[in-house]
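re: that chain from earlier
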Amino acid sequence: MLEQGAYGRLDDDAEAVLWQEFSVPFRFPVAFTRNALAPDNSLLADMLSMREADKRHRLHVVVDEGVAAAWPNLNEQIAAYVATYGNHLELLDAPRVVPGGERIKQSFEHVEAVLDDTHRLRIDRHSYIVAIGGGAMLDAIGLAAATAHRGVRHVRLPTTVLSQNDSGVGVKNAVNLKNVKNFMGSFAPPWAVLNDFNFLDTLEPRDKVSGVSEAVKVALIRDPAFFYRLEQDADALAAFQPAETEYMIRRCAELHMRQIGAAGDPFEMGSARPLDFGHWAAHKLEAMTEHAVRHGEAVAIGIALDSRYSVLSGRLAPGLDERICALMERLGFGLWHDALDKVGASGEPALLTGLREFQEHLGGQLTVTLLSEIGTGVEVHEIDGALMMQAVDWLQTRATS
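^ sequence. v structure.
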């Protein structure tokens, strides 16, 4: 087999070039339940034992401090659960409590603390690090699990809407470094994901709403029927009604899983990132506001911005941008922040530097997902800065009129 290189074809002479090729299948369960730590709910124990039912499995638990505060009896619940299934489970230490949100990703401190635990407790590659928390916390603890011994089994119990319907079911782990979001990270699939809807009950209303933007995102690029369902259920979702919320989370997670597993690029070797629709602006807005704007809120604004740009650039039918924005406002999102109008030191709109940063993150050519219709995303490699700022102006006009 000959491969085309920059200066011609690689020599396929067996003495000159050896080609290594193999594939590794990945398969892990993503389950949905309530009362995951109730003694009569064996789902977590079954997940930990699913490939080795005849041994006692060692585990260390790490808990997001926000979850620990909202669930003051959580340590006792964990201990009682492990005791119930003591023939199969062994708890190695009291759960470690770590910061949640972007704070845990701002340094390597808490990753290192979990690595210290891994060494101290003699956690091996067939032991488990179980993380209970939001998406940022899962990112950081996942990095610790992925790098200890080149990979310790990692189980996620996401506790926010955003982590249950999106980040918790993915294969990425990271912390921020050198003032760059997710600069230090890994691709490492979890052993299992267990979504317990009970954890959502104690979230602040702002956090409940925030995660719904990822459902709008994946519906817009992959599933028009889901978008129409979100429109139908918008008032119930804004009120966080259980049936509609649980359907939204499951369908959103399913669509994310399908994209990651079936689109042919789970470890992002290429430059296309359809699941990052609306995210180039969202990441920049988060940074410019020092995370005063939360991720889901920033994604909602990014979706609105790129939907309007899709219309201005002739890709999306006029009026659909307004329809998309109307849905997100019914869900409870504001679609304007004054940082969008900020000018950088060079005189260029600060928001547009996010395009260059996004391209660097992609590691190749700029690839931004836009819309050609509801349910269909299209990849483009150039963005007209002046036209994008017209989209910004449109958002500002909508917000002030």
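The chain has two domains: 30-202, 205-400.
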